Amino acid sequence: MPRLFRGHVAIPPLAGFRSMSPPTRCLFQRAVRAWVAVALLALAAGCYVPVEKAPKNREVVDPCAERLHDLAGRLLMYRFAEGHLPASLADLPKSGAEELVCPVSGKGYVYRRNGPAAPGGEGQMVVWDATACHNGGRWLVTLAQPGGEAVTAKVVWAPEAAFVKAVGGK
Asked: Do 84 and 118 reside in the same domain of the chain?
């Protein structure tokens, strides 16, 4: 049995361990302890989950964007069940009275079943804010069916100039 000094931990014998001189053996034990400590720290660091900071752009959670996201999901469900989009947003199943109103402006969302092409040409706009009350722009729900695949819905922010151009305004 290896002789233990105060504060030392016994390390199982390795090949040639007994043949080492006591000072070399002590250095070897310290090196092993250091490597064990480094390994434990690495394991502990691997378990650390960093908290993500909110992005500084428009991907920050916005109550209007969240409401439109829920509305987009309901539109897709309706289209899947009925084979077409509803004539108006009132035809969607109800899940809250305030859902069809922008929480910032207090105005109802605009809905066009056959809306104009979205800014950037990715799909068509079907729902959007009535006013540009979100940092000079509007939140939109766009629907696209790329290459005849399944219909997808996106909630995107568009600056007012791009929105006006897309709807054929000034």
From this structure: yes
| Spatial contact of 127 and 111, defined as CB atoms under 8 Å apart | yes
3 assigned to some structural domain: no
Residue 137, helix vs strand vs coil: strand
Residue 111: both structure tokens together: 């809905």
Count of residues for the chain? 170
- Express each pLDDT in 118-128 by its tens digit: 887 778 899 98
| pLDDT tens digits, one per residue of 41-80 | 776 665 544 444 444 554 557 888 888 888 888 888 888 8
Distance, in Å, from the CA atom of 125 to the CA atom of 167, rounded to the nearest integer, reads 9
Whole-model pTM?
Answer: 0.61
Range of the domain at 160: 63-166
